[in-house]
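Entry 14. Ran structure prediction on the chain below.
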Amino acid sequence: MERRSFLAAALAFAAVPLAAEAQPARKVYRLGILSPAGRPSPSAPGSVIRIPRALHELGYVEGQNLVVEQRFAEGKIDRLSGLARELVELRVDVIVAVSAAAVQAAKEATKTVPIVMFSSGDLVGRGFVASLARPGGNITGVALAPENELAGKRLELIKEAVPRVPRIAVLTTAEPSAKTQVAKARQAAPSLGVKLVVVEARSAAYDRAFATMVTEGAGALFVVASPVLNRDRKRIHELAAKHRIPAIYDWRENAEEGGLMTYGSNNAALSRRVAEYVDKILKGAKPADLPVEQPTTFELVINLKTARSLGLTIPPSLLLRADQVIE
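Output, structure tokens:
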């Protein structure tokens, strides 16, 4: 009896590694992230940081079942094409493209790897998708609000905050979506009774850009929605405060970190939606069948502390319309 028990135990023990070896290996997904901006600080609340965190909440853990390959153009748009090809050569399962320029580069690099865009602009007109409801190709994702349409609204809001200024500066970049916003701002300016001072920040030369604004007599500033400018927002806030120029931005984080005003969609919520698109695709959904999502609500946030430091009194009518007022 003891001999039989021993043999049974030995056979059971020997079977354990065999059974373990028979278990299928857990799938490890590879996610590519392509952005025209620079590598953000881990503490920054931008989308490039938020998307992997949102994926973690959906069960993806870096180092276990997820590898994240990040590529940043450091503000040099012409580098995006090469970086997109790198991601394709790494055989990533999905590419998240942040900005229209990144989407264009990814689109040119592959027609098979799914692309989840986090972008603004004319997505249909640029050929990214056949339609928002039926993308029809390997691209889908989240439209960052129609920034070209919000450009006029942001200009209107900063003019309402500083009603007597005759000139408003527009800080922009070489990105296609930025140029579209500038065009819309130019259309809106005459009806608001202001002249625009358009300044392109090249190679992050922000001191020079603000010097131009001051020389041109700009009394307020509209900062276009841009991953590059969002990356450098701290420096832009500092210079706006130094030169006492009231400014309006896109994401609410700008107001929370010292900018005067913001008007736009919620970055945190949209980053979660991008992660959900990635999750669906990794689980087998096809980009062609996933409608492009557009935000329907926008937030106006005003930092009264910044207003006071600028010696600016925000009109009560504007404060009443704000979704949040930071004291």
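The first helix runs from residue 2 to 22. Will compare against last week's run tomorrow.
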